[in-house]
Amino acid sequence: MGPATFGSIKLVVKNIFEIENLIHHINTFIPVSSELKNRLKSICKIETFPKGHFLHKPESTCLNTYFINKGLVRIYYLKDDKEITDNFAAENEWITSIYSFLKNIPDHFHIQTLETTELAGISLNDLEECFKDYPEMERFGRMLISAYFLEQSERIISLQFNSARERYQFFERTSKNKLQRVLPLGMLASHLGMTQETLSRVRAS
Amino acid sequence: MGPATFGSIKLVVKNIFEIENLIHHINTFIPVSSELKNRLKSICKIETFPKGHFLHKPESTCLNTYFINKGLVRIYYLKDDKEITDNFAAENEWITSIYSFLKNIPDHFHIQTLETTELAGISLNDLEECFKDYPEMERFGRMLISAYFLEQSERIISLQFNSARERYQFFERTSKNKLQRVLPLGMLASHLGMTQETLSRVRAS
DNA sequence: GAATTAAATTGATATAAATCAAAAAATATA
DNA sequence: TATATTTTTTGATTTATATCAATTTAATTC
Known about the structure:
Oligomer: homodimer
Strand order of the largest sheet of chain A: 3-10-5-8
CATH topology of one domain in chain A: Jelly Rolls
Number of helices of chain A: 9
Largest interface: A-B, 28 and 28 residues
Number of strands of chain A: 10
CATH architecture of one domain in chain A: Sandwich
Radius of gyration of chain A: 19 Å
Order of helices and strands of chain A: EEHHEEEEEEHEEHHHHHH
C-alpha cells in the first residue's frame, strides 16, 4: 500500500520514531558506538501497523523479532478452536515467535497488534550478522534473553501452584502497564490460564 | 576437607571427569580454541557430591552455575511448608538458581543432588571475565540461554491449559532421561503442578 | 530376615474452577 | 439516537483435582 493520495497531493507520513528509543533501550545494557548505531539504523525496518494487523501467522516462519516503540501486541495460539494468549508486549519490549524465529521453521502462533503499533523489525540473518560484527551486540542479546528467561521463570512459578486470584495479582504486580489495555478480557484470562468467567469473578471480589 | 588418610598412606581420589565432557558440550555450539579450553580448565571447579548434598540454600546467594557431568540435581522452594520442585538437571545440563546467580542476591531456593553427582561449577565473576575475553563464549552463553528459554516457553504452554495427564505426558516426552530417576515421585508431582496422589492416579491409568 | 520407616496407592469427600446458559452492560453500526 | 453486536457479568451445575484418611508396597535399618 503506497501513500494516500488526495487529488494530486501525496501525503507521505514520515516515521517519527526513527530508532532513538531502541538505541536508548540497548544502551541501558551496553554502550552503543556510532558504528553500531549506524548498523542498527540500516537493519531495522521501522513500521506502523493499525490495530488488528498480523505480524506473523500460523504455518509460516516468523522472520523478524520486533521491538515495540509504541502500542501493544500479543502472541497467541489455538487450542480446541479457542485462542490462548501466550504473551503481550508493549513499549520498549520485544516480541517474536521465538521458536519459529530462532529455528527458522513454521509454527502455530499468531502475532497480532492490539493497538496501533509502531515497531522496529530485525531479521534473524541481520541480527546474526550484527552479532558477529559487534560482540557487544551479542552481549546485549545474551543479557536481554537472560532477562526474559528470569521473567518466564517467575511466570512458571505463578502457574505451577497459584490460585486464579494469585495469578491475576501476579499480573497486576508485574504488568501494570498492560492492565488497562488488554481488551477484551478473554485474552488476559487465557494468558493467566483461566476462563473469562473466572477472571470476571476474580476481578469483582 | 583434605584427602583421606589411612595410617601414613594418603588417598588422593583423582577427578576422572576433567572437563572433556563440558568442552564437548560447548563445542556443539561454538568452536573451542585451545586458549578458551585452558581458560575453562582454570575457572571450572570440578567436584563430586553424594546424594542429598545442597549446592545452594535459601537466604544465601547462589555463587555458581553448574554443569552436570554425571548425576541428577533438582532446584526447589517451599510453599506453605511443602517442597515445590521447580526443575531438574541431569547429564550435560546446567543448573543454577538463576535469579540469585545473575543478580548476585539471596533467594529462597534449594539446589540439591538426587544422586551422587559430578559437576563443574563456574562463578559469575569468572564467567563474565570469560565472556569479555572470549566473545565466542558469550555467543555460547546467548545460545544456551536461548535454548533454555525455548524449553521454558513450552513448559509454560504445558502448564497454562493442559490437564494433569497431559502435563505428565509432556514430561514423559521431553524428559525421558529423568523419568525413572526422579524419586520420590512427590518431587515430580510438584514439578508438574499436581499432588502426589493425582500423579499416582495418572500413572495408574 | 524381621522390624521399622518411608513412599505409593487407593478410597471418600471437598473445593476451585470449568462449563453451560442467560442477563446486563458496553461498544459499534445503521 | 436506536439497533445490533460484542463483551462482561452473574447464576446454576459439572468436573478435575485437592484434601484427608487409610492401606499397601517398597526401602531401610537393626
